[in-house]
Amino acid sequence: MPAAPDRGVGSGIAVPPELPGKSAPTSHKGMVFLRCGRFLMGSEGPECWASDGEGPVREVDLPPFWMDECAVTNSQFAEFVAATNYKTEAENFGWSYVFQKHVNATNKKQARGISGEANWWLGIDGAHWRKPEGPGSNVRKRENHPVVHVSWNDAAAYCAWAGKSLPTEAQWEFAARGGLEQNRYPWGNELVPTGKNDKPEHRCNIWQGKFPDLDTGADGWVGTAPAKFYAPNASGLYQTSGNVWEWCADWFSRFHGATAAQGTTHKVTKGGSFLCHESYCNRYRVSARTANTPDSTTSHTGFRCAVAAATAENTAR
User: Fold this and answer.
1) 309 touches 283 (CB < 8 A)
2) Which CATH number, 3.40.50.300, 3.10.310.30, 3.90.1150.10, 3.90.1580.10, labels domain 45-86+143-190+197-308?
């Protein structure tokens, strides 16, 4: 993740969304119903990041809920903007972080600079969800890709309009696991399992090659992939490993159960992104986690929504 942007007074604050117009009626279309119960959350082992608070492994009991089958797409976010005239924080601030390999020469020359030690991130004026790489780019051929350059506050605003919420970290991880207990990935423990005709089968969109200099695109994509490109997990959820980081409702802490009142300033993100590589960031595992401030925006962060279900008798319809 790039360093949290310095965006002036109020930076890092989670702001309750105030939307003009009417909210959309809550719909379970495109969502998966999860009956839940107890599961083992977190992970421990040499591949885990103790500094991120991945462990200890702990038993969590969840009531049933609904979860979006995939990340919110550019097309879906456009409907929200059309209905509410909403402007994202990247649009209001006038800039956002873009991975430097995806920035054209003109925009590079006008960049605000790099993000701390993560020198592959450039602050690009005019970069936002409609122009992911800055001026001159668009999403016309990416309507079914996850929306990016959305802050936690933007994601919460969309959820409020849709009559939904951001998933808690526990909900997100339960859904991502697809019923597999303590496996590394939504499909098992092997990152690139053997598929048909004994050929390697890529199951997610992450960095292939030498980070951050060369992404071969061996998994089919350089940059974001369509939100439903790879096969879903056993619960019917698409791409909970790689592609884009996804915001969760929780405040981030190494010590679980933290609240904003306890001094935390970052929100949890899960899932990893197209920039993750084992040499630098193997956080495309289902237990992995990181965080950013609620007003942060990047070209590799999106979200999906959840809806609490009152009883286990609720069924898909």
Assistant:
1) no
2) 3.90.1580.10
* Rounded Cα distance, 298 and 246, in Å: 11
56-98 pLDDT, tens digit per residue, is 999 999 999 999 999 999 999 999 999 999 999 999 999 999 9
Joined tokens for residue 39: 């599961």
With contact defined as beta carbons under 8 Å apart, do 269 and 262 qualify? no
CB-based contact 295:153 (threshold 8 Å): yes
DSSP state of 211: T
pLDDT tens track for 257-311: 666 546 689 999 999 999 999 888 899 999 999 999 999 999 999 999 999 987 3
Q: What is the pTM of this model?
A: 0.91
Residue pair 129/90 in contact by the 8 Å Cβ criterion? yes
Q: What are phi and psi of 208, to 5 degrees?
A: -120, 120
What are the sequence ranges of the domains in the chain? Answer: 45-86+143-190+197-308
